Amino acid sequence: MRSLRLSSLAAALLLACSAFAATVVAVEHQCPTSGVAAPGELFARQNLVAWCIVPFDAKQRSPQQRAEMLRRLGISKLAYDWRDKHVPSFEEEILQTKKNGIELVAFWGMHGDFVSLVRKHHIKPQFWVMMDAPNAASNEDKIVKAAQSLLPAMKQAGELGCKLALYNHGGWSGEPDNMVAVVKWLRENQGADHVGIAYNLHHGHGHLADFPAALAKMKPYLLCLNLNGMVVDGDRRGMLILPLGQGDLDLPLLKTIVASGYRGPIGILNHTDEDAEARLQDNLDGLDWLVRQLEGQPAGPKPTPRTWKPK
Predict the structure, then answer these.
(1) Tens digit of pLDDT for each residue in 58-94?
(2) How many angstroms separate the CA atoms of 146 and 181, rounded?
(3) Which pLDDT does position 25 carry in this prediction?
């Protein structure tokens, strides 16, 4: 019964993604300036953001080593996650990214020391935050309370000239409909056009069957879209984090993302205890393989990851 459910859900996603992509392709054929990016453009190295590579790294690299690693890989953007031990090296991270031509595009949460450095070094990162899931009598009341709890972060990001992105991490606060509703409330009631969404596929296994519709709702507010190798129920099967190209849903999901017209930053992640450079390279290899298929080019054999083996 479990295998039947998995195959049914996968088939439903494939059908939904294919139908969505076909519809947008038809529109693009009639109106070729509608804004759909070519796969090679959307997933190009210069548009990729390295994510979850600071505490998640077997080699526990220094800021200098991390920036040099990204430069070797041809990745020019970093979303910075951290733990308490990294606070003293916040400024060195900024200095090393600048020295190596890496843009620090996002910071996890809010921290007073980093806020001061944003002012000092005149950088404009996004701040990625999780919103509360407050108790309330109705979902509408929860939306308002969740939005109101974000007002301090919203104001601080706005004063810095930065964007604030709601980050999905499961539960009520990670549901696309709720994230969109909170962003709309803040924009409509606070004039907070700098508030948006950073969406993560690895925290979106429960959204797969409805992904095309969810993506369409989020797209006007989407500030970054973080990829992951995806299989049905991966979060329940010990396959939460996979290299790109190793998930049987990766190709239809990427087709849907391209067809949606999204043109913003694309994240690739480690989020494991593996060597961050090796996992990022696995993701790059898998992404290149998928892009060749998206472009109708000979893809060659499926890449063999350095940092992951099928169970």
Answers:
(1) 999 999 999 999 999 999 999 999 999 999 999 999 9
(2) 10
(3) 45
Q: What is the CATH number of domain 38-294?
A: 3.20.20.150
Residue 167's pLDDT band (cuts 50, 70, 90)? very high
Across the chain, which distance is largest between two alpha carbons, in Å?
A: 58
301: buried, middle or exposed (CB in 10 Å: 19+, 13-18, 0-12)? exposed
Residues 275, 200: Cα–Cα separation, whole Å: 21
CA distances from 31 to 135, 207, 239 (A): 46, 30, 40
Burial class (CB in 10 A: 0-12, 13-18, 19+), 134: middle
Domain boundaries, the chain: 38-294
- Calpha distance 262→217 (Å, rounded): 12
| CA–CA distance, 268 with 280 (Å, rounded to integer) | 7
